[in-house]
Amino acid sequence: MIEHALEHFDTVYVTIDALDESQSRENILKVVRDLMTDFRFSKIHLLATSREYLDIQKVMEPISMKVSMKNPFLDDDIRTYTVACINREKRMMSWIQQLRDETIEALVEGAKGMFRWVVCQVEMLKRVRGNADAIREELRRLPKTLDETYTRIFDQIPGEDAMLVDVALGWMYFCRYLNDRDYLPCDFTPRIGVLANAAQWELARTSVQGRNSACDPRLLREACGCLISVTGDDEAVSFAHYTVLEFLENRSVPDSPKSWRLDSLVPRFEESTLRAILQVTDEDAKKGFAEDFEKDKPFRSFAAFCIAAKWLPL
């Protein structure tokens, strides 16, 4: 089929982004190898991007020319981006110019072409409490990879915020679980208000009596930092980057509250949703998804949505 299509063109340019994210990496690599080595496809010029994995390198090295993401042109873009990130942070803009310059140089050098890495370092650095020496110490020990970065982010979450972040990210994953399996009639993307209310609900349900379980959108955004993204007028919440979800899915230490496994969360949040449904009153049900109901009781509104979708039979 491809061979016949090529008859109508002199040259065809193909771009494959993120080979490493393919669900069937072996198959896509075989296709790439065939496209590059079979004379029938000689009109094709292929550009493929990927992080460095041994199986991908083994296939690609004999048939391709490597272009490193670490190059002067990208460094210039990283520098511009880093300056913009720092300029948006009031706390970092209060630093002396020399310290800001040192920070920019350290981040540009350590980024290795990763814009996402810069975002995460800025998020951690702006939270450093202490003088310039404390900040310089953090610059000397910057994590080298995104995995190391996410590990440090979770390790540095204050104890009072750890359960809040755990619950919030868990609910986001649970919503993805429902969407991916077509349990709901339409994709459900939680808003920050709904997520904060869900976190407050879960904290109140699992905390000891009398513990303060208040959680508002501002507190949730501050606690989660660069792990989540809030966009649009409706303040929809999503994982800030696919690497956040990838990191969490690959966690292998289930014992610590900061190292939970996502696949264990589905039953837990199914139970929480059921408990919320049981507290939806007849009056609530009559209101349906009226604006005041969603505003006053957003998490119960989500529970009512599940009932309407017939996801949970009652």
Structural account:
- The protein is mainly α and about 325 residues long.
- The chain folds into 3 domains: about 1-65, no CATH class; about 70-140, no CATH class; about 160-310, no CATH class.
- Helix content is about 55%, strand content about 5%.
- The chain is built from 17 helices and 4 strands.
- The chain has helices at about 1-5, 25-35, 55-60, 70-85, 90-95, 95-110, 115-125, 130-140, 145-155, 160-180, 190-205, 215-225, 240-250, 265-280, 280-285, 290-295, 300-310, and strands spanning about 10-15, 45-50, 230, 235-240.
- A two-stranded parallel sheet has the order 1-2. It has a two-stranded antiparallel ribbon with strand order 3-4.
- Helix 4 (about 70-85) packs parallel to helix 7 (about 115-125), helix 6 runs antiparallel to helix 7 and helix 11 (about 190-205) crosses helix 12.
- It is globular and about 65 Å long.
- The N and C termini lie far apart (about 50 Å).
- Mean pLDDT is about 80; it is low at about 255-260, about 290-295 and about 310-314.
